[in-house]
Write a structure and sequence with these properties.
This protein has 170 residues and is mostly helical. The chain has one domain (2-169): Up-down Bundle (Bromodomain-like). 75% of the residues lie in helices and 2% in strands. The protein is built from 7 helices and 2 strands, in the order H-H-H-H-H-H-E-E-H. It has a two-stranded antiparallel ribbon. The longest helix is centred in the last third of the chain and has 30 residues, at 140-169. Disulfide bonds join 37-40. It is a multi-pass membrane protein. This is Disulfide bond formation protein B.
């Protein structure tokens, strides 16, 4: 069903989805006072990367391998975001025994080299295990994971569609 849409339409949908989700996050942060934890911020970065790649792909509208390259980059960024969301969901479902609120993302990035800051981010702090908001019983991290998975599948359809066409062209 999704393959009925053109490559440009799929890339446009991914970009709109990502920017809409980022907007929703900002609304929750501003109006509902739901402060993002370090892992939430990393998920936002992943949505920005996915959204920018998708926007560039939609504007460029490449043919052949160019579309596959964009789809691969989008899929990789979505898989990264999914991994972060899955780790945070795990922390929320199985919170650590001793909850301690670690330093925020800005402090970690300014105080430590990237190689040391990233493991600290993925360990999660007490803030990352806390569920501040839910919709239909799912936390923000759960929803982010579902959206990253959906984006990955959409990118995969671009990759598979291109391969099928080239196989039938021979």
């Amino acid at each position: 069903m999704i393959t009925r849409f053109s490559q440009r339409q799929r890339f446009s949908a991914i970009a709109l989805l990502c920017f809409g989700l980022l907007g929703t996050g900002l609304v929750l942060q501003t109006l509902k006072h739901v402060a993002p934890c370090p892992m939430c911020i990393m998920q936002r970065y992943a949505f920005v990367v996915v959204g920018l790649f998708a926007l560039i792909a939609a504007l460029h509208n490449p043919r052949g391998r160019g579309g596959q390259l964009y789809a691969g980059l989008i899929g990789l960024a979505a898989a990264t975001g999914f991994g972060i969301a899955a780790r945070q969901s795990w922390l929320q479902w199985f919170p650590p025994k001793y909850v301690e609120c670690g330093p925020d993302l800005e402090f970690m990035m300014n105080s430590f080299p990237l190689g040391q800051a990233l493991p600290m981010i993925f360990q999660g702090s007490g803030d990352c295990a806390k569920v501040d908001w839910t919709f239909l019983g799912l936390s923000i991290a759960n929803w982010a994971g579902l959206w990253f998975a959906a984006i990955f599948v959409m990118a995969l359809t671009v990759l598979l569609q291109r391969r099928e066409r080239s196989r039938f062209a021979n």
